[in-house]
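Continuing the series of single-chain predictions for the mutant panel. This is the parent chain; the variants come on the following pages.
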Amino acid sequence: MPAWRARLSPREVDHLVAWIKAVSDFEPVPEAVAEGRDAAARLGCFACHGAQGRFDTPNPGSLKGHIPSWTGRDFLELARDDAEIREWIRDGSPRRFRDNPAAAFFLRRQAIRMPAYGGRASDADVERILAYIRW
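Parent structure:
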């Protein structure tokens, strides 16, 4: 490992440490949270929502231009509450967006679409994922 002291400022080191913690599985988490993280990994959620669901993935044609991380500001706008998160998982989008002509336009034209997991995600898995997102 190279010595970075002369190349990185203390602030940059802090940012690097925060990033490593954000994408790693090394930090201990409560069991219910770990189960949610494992369910999200098993269903492939991190392929689009980024490592541990914490990074935006570019998505041309989408409303925000990216697939939101679960920890960003855009996520709170696109999934107002647990019920809407459940709709995203089960149906691929919440009814609020499907019923809104402008939002539906963006849902149709985005390059990467949220899959509708329907019955492929058990109720228990959905609740576990919600616990992970809330954490």
